[in-house]
Specification:
Length: about 525
């Protein structure tokens, strides 16, 4: 990564470190600011980078790759408690889209760090609000497990955290890459997941006016995806992302209290809004909550979901990976209860197997809860199936030329959409973004569009893959049409995969091969 250093006109002001990029987000000079305590960047091993520096580098790489341009990240490299927090430095927050806070005991004790959060919140209220399209512009990275966060503004206390620690034999250990390859892999994966969420928010900020984000969207479908041990955090996050992509709101949607009584109250309130609860259980016991029973959050959530299932018939899924046994007596007792106690299982299907088996069960359960769709009933009556949505991306001059393709695809039972071309620019972009996010396959119709249009569309497809977490790649095809150009000829000469030469008469056979590939790929939750 390339780092640049800019010195203030005033000699007394500190140097700030930022990462170069190709463009801003919705008028912001910086994509994000990393707020942290300097003690947390002290190297664990001499001549090695500290944790914050490693985090910064990984986040820069992932975020730049996901957005197709080098991200602009800034963090102070020299500010200390005795330095002057000048107006010139404060002005940077008004030019920053997102705040990433690295929460540790040192962070919570730092007046400097709290001041950075306060200042960002103040500026954010003047540039679209802290909550934008129901997503917080504050990302809370929990490097260390901490309980007391009362010193933070409520907007940050309520923000969902990104756990960078796991519980090992009752002790929370940080995901420090120097601890070994397993820790390094988990560290990189969680930075990647964080980068995807930041990229999605930055894309939304880029396509909206500042005030548009203040509109609250109410989802009609909600699922309670129970909190789990730190070892399953990655699987939970990936499942959460897939559910959101399917159009579901996922609870908890904010950080929950650390004391069991208010915790239980908030969980009950969330469960009342949900059509399904999903519980991920493994061999780790995370005490987590303070209170009379000092119960594990995982066990308490199951009990509360049982309660809701008895009163409101809430359907539930519990995933227990095959062969799960725990060295902790409390967790092992819970595992055995899930296997044999009807009370612990009440209202639930118990899934033993791998994560894919859980996803399959979730998909099938949601289909049952949704009930039959009229189009599916009609197709079934005709002995056909409805594979899903095929999105044909084209230039507005090619709408008529796509008619044979659209007719053929519709005969095969697909819903077919082409881009929205007219209307407010931000709304047009949002509508086309939604089509990308929910389609099952893409045909890029390369006709009247110039080569730069083709490259731009390829970039949008890469962003789509990033937003979907890379775990549900959407099949795509490039369909070459007149007018013919040297760039199109080069694609043919290079025998690029997933390219159809569509010159001359429309060929059903070539497109049929692609659709069979789509159908073999199937729906991926």
């Amino acid at each position: 990564t390339t780092e640049i250093y800019t010195l203030s006109l005033h000699d007394a002001l500190p140097i700030y470190e930022s990462s170069r990029m190709g463009g801003g987000t919705m008028g912001f000079a910086y994509d994000l600011f990393i707020s942290y305590s300097h003690i947390d960047d002290q190297p664990l091993i001499p001549d090695r980078h500290g944790w914050i520096t490693q985090f910064h580098g990984a986040l820069l790489t992932f975020l730049s790759q996901l957005r197709g341009a080098e991200a602009r990240i800034w963090r102070d490299s020299r500010l200390q408690g005795n330095d002057i927090f000048s107006d010139e430095i404060l002005d940077q927050f008004a030019q920053t889209a997102v705040l990433v806070t690295v929460v540790t005991p040192a962070f919570l004790k730092s007046k400097w760090c709290v001041k950075e959060v306060d200042e960002f919140c103040r500026c954010a209220e003047q540039s679209g609000g802290i909550i934008f399209r129901n997503k917080s512009r504050i990302f809370k990275v929990e490097k260390t497990a901490v309980k007391a966060q009362e010193s933070l503004p409520s907007a940050m206390r309520d923000a969902l955290g990104y756990q960078f620690y796991v519980n090992v034999e009752g002790k929370n250990l940080e995901l420090e890459p120097n601890f070994g390859e397993e820790y390094a892999q988990r560290f990189r994966l969680r930075v990647r997941l964080l980068a995807e969420d930041i990229a999605k928010l930055l894309d939304t900020l880029s396509s909206e006016s500042p005030d548009a984000g203040r509109v609250t969207q109410t989802a009609c479908k909600a699922i309670y995806l129970a909190e789990c041990s730190g070892y399953q955090w990655d699987n939970r996050k990936l499942l959460e992302r897939e559910l959101e992509r399917q159009g579901y709101s996922v609870f908890p949607d904010r950080a929950l209290p650390g004391h069991e009584e208010p915790y239980a109250s908030e969980v009950r309130s969330m469960l009342e809004k949900c059509m399904l609860s999903i519980h991920i259980v493994d061999d780790h016991y995370d005490p987590g909550l303070t209170g009379p029973s000092q119960e594990s959050a995982v066990i308490l959530q199951n009990a509360l979901a049982v309660e809701r299932s008895k009163t409101a018939k809430l359907p539930r899924l519990i995933w227990l990976p095959s062969g799960t046994l725990s060295n902790d007596k409390r967790q092992q007792a819970f595992i055995e209860a899930l296997d044999s106690d009807p009370g612990a299982q009440f209202g639930a299907d118990l899934i033993r197997g791998n994560i894919q088996e859980l996803k399959t069960s979730v998909r099938e359960t949601l289909k049952k809860l949704a009930g039959p769709v009229p189009k599916q009933e009609e197709a079934a009556a005709n002995g056909a199936s409805v594979p899903g949505l095929l999105y044909i991306i084209c230039d507005d001059r090619d709408v008529k030329a796509t008619v044979p393709v659209r007719k053929f695809v519709k005969k095969r039972g697909y819903d077919v959409e082409i881009p929205v071309f007219e209307g407010n620019a931000a709304r047009v972009r949002e509508a086309n973004q939604q089509l990308l996010d929910r389609c099952n396959a893409v045909v890029l119709f390369y006709g009247a569009g110039e080569e730069i249009w083709k490259r731009t569309m390829d970039g949008e497809l890469k962003k789509m893959a990033g937003r979907r977490g890379g775990h549900s790649r959407v099949p795509s095809l490039t369909y070459l049409a007149d007018p013919w150009t040297s760039a199109k000829q080069d694609l043919v000469d290079m025998e690029e995969p997933d390219v159809i030469d569509g010159r001359g008469e429309f060929s059903e056979a070539a497109l049929d091969t692609f659709l069979k590939t789509v159908e073999d790929n199937g729906a991926v939750l």
